[in-house]
Specification:
CATH architecture of one domain in chain A: Alpha-Beta Barrel
Strand order of the largest sheet of chain A: 1-4-5-6-7-8-9
Largest sheet of chain A: 7 strands, parallel
Number of strands of chain A: 9
Structural class of chain A: alpha/beta
Oligomer: homodimer
Largest interface: A-B, 44 and 44 residues
């Protein structure tokens, strides 16, 4: 770990050290709201082709950095590359989201191919190596994966779903197979993240987008416990690499999540009160968040004053500015510019 | 208020007094999972015809009480009768949910007809009067309305929506009209709930189903503040009538909600940890909840042990057993019977 004056601002904040201003990046900062992204997306063909072609994935990862000079770039990929690597092919239909052949039985879990996850995902690691070469030296590189519970919901439902009902019934009802599916996802995710770090990722984030759908008993078992196992295994191989968790919708359970998983940083969704996070989470780890992405569509003073409020409220503890969820396609790029300027100016620290 | 041995168990618990066992009811206990409901629904024609025909609405309200003898019956109606009464007609298309002509401008808000809300909803009050006659004397009668924020999302989006984006942008961006819409909904809801109590409702519940979609600043302004105004006005007219709030998805903000709105009871969604609610909410008011409705689909030991865990954890403070959200149509009625038997047996108090 670097400890001199050139250490990246993002990594300093993630380590809980003092920084000159809040570092920032935005979830889904590479995406459809940018014309240059849409151009590459069209050129690439399918969405997975974009993820699996290092030339394209590097380019779209760099696009927002060129425009807004965030303090961190996040690998362009998708959380469903893991099921894809397990032999459960993922198709992306225009305007419909991902479609998978559902895995709903113990036998279907046994049929998953666990032997070639890292091999299948080789292009992702090449993307990371390319990004380390091309990124400005003060910009950190974030790798990521979906957390097991969230990835399992897509695998079981066969895509997105409003309430993840089938997955919840399988998990909470205790029918055989779901434990094994989670075990497969823990092992695959550990291998995937370790290889991402080997390829140059300086931190990794675990997205548990649907953790809020579980009651507490299930949250402990299917969100906290698998995440703890992943954090432990990744840190055993890479003790210096910080891990960020994002248990979206965890409410007051964010505290248990941070205490029990051992993450170094926690990303909070927009429903979390910044004052509550300052009091209850910042004493435990670095907090990342949490502007509502709709403010980036609104823009203007409403956006800037809400961002300022978050910067002020979380400014006394370790904080990485971010959104509470991904940038939406309707976002005008000039609003992203205005927000980024506010943070670059570091007004919260003055 | 009664204070003798015949006082209804549900109302005693809601007042924070000791009861022999936890009272219970289930959100959406009248509904499609019951064959006898589907029969009446078919006979009624449209969904609003069911709500607005006292004979039918009384019948479907009583159906689950006959089967399971809950401690409370909830008026059969819909939160969208208020926009309907304001002259924004609501259509229910089979399998698609409600459809409304969207209200998205200050002018459209001005066009709402606020003069006949209580008149338009006369059949609902007749239903309540009929229910007071027909309900067993130990079963309490609950009235309800949607909270202004949640009703506004349907009015603005023109129906259900995954992220309430247009409503959030209007509310958070500060364009004119949204404040007025909320004011209209506060006034209409106060009039509606007061008339429900006049017609026999012994408590009223405010459903803020989509409050979890708002960041804290918006939550304070669009969920807590309108709810506080409604609670104040209802209690001014009916100081003895308890009010229950349900800010679904409020996470740690449940505490602020209870403290600032003045509700007598709070319904918690399934993502809330019962132990956290016991420590943080039961000292403030009665807690209602919070079995995940998917457990009622699962049934068996998994359902019963989760229910037992909730009963034990919340059993030392004022508690009304309920679900964290409504019963889903796939629920086998015999699972509801088994759960109800567990609670009738009162094992948590033994």
């Amino acid at each position: 770990m670097q400890a001199n004056g050139t250490e990246k601002r993002f990594l300093k904040a993630l380590a809980g050290r003092k920084v000159d201003r809040a570092p920032f990046w935005y979830m889904r900062q590479a995406g459809r709201y940018l014309a240059e992204y849409r151009a590459v997306r069209e050129q690439a063909g399918g969405f997975l082709d974009l993820c699996y072609t290092p030339e394209f994935a590097i380019e779209v990862t760099l696009q927002p950095i060129r425009r807004y000079r965030m303090d961190a770039a996040i690998l362009f990929a998708d959380i469903l590359v893991v099921p894809d690597a397990l032999g459960q092919p993922v198709a992306y239909k225009e305007g419909e989201g991902p479609v998978l052949e559902p895995v709903r039985t113990a036998d279907a879990v046994k049929d998953l191919n666990t032997s070639n996850v890292v091999g299948h995902l080789a292009p992702v690691f090449e993307t990371l190596r390319g990004l380390r070469r091309e990124l400005p030296e003060d910009v950190a590189l974030i790798g990521f994966a979906g957390a097991p519970w969230t990835v399992a919901t897509y695998m079981v439902e066969g895509g997105g779903s409003p309430d993840h009902a089938l997955t919840k019934r399988w998990a909470l009802g205790g029918e055989p197979g779901f434990d094994t599916l989670i075990d497969v996802l823990v092992d695959s995710t550990v291998a995937y993240l370790k290889a991402q770090i080997d390829a140059g990722a300086e931190t990794v984030q675990l997205f548990d987008t649907w953790s809020g759908a579980l009651p507490e008993s299930g949250f402990d078992r299917w969100c906290i416990e698998p995440t703890r196992r992943i954090v432990d295994a990744v840190k055993q191989a890479h003790p210096e690499t910080p891990v960020i968790g994002f248990p979206r919708g965890a409410g007051a359970k964010y505290v248990d999540y941070v205490k029990q998983t051992g993450v170094d940083g926690v990303s909070i969704d927009s429903s979390v009160s910044p004052a509550w996070a300052a009091a209850n989470l910042q004493p435990l780890c670095t907090v990342q968040g949490n502007l509502d992405p709709q403010f980036l569509v609104i823009g203007g003073d409403a956006m800037l004053s809400e961002a300022q409020r978050i910067l002020s409220t979380l400014g006394n503890g370790p904080h990485i500015f971010n959104l509470g969820h991904g940038i939406v396609p309707q976002t005008p790029p000039e609003h992203v510019a205005a927000l980024s300027e506010l943070i670059h100016a570091g007004t919260a620290d003055d």
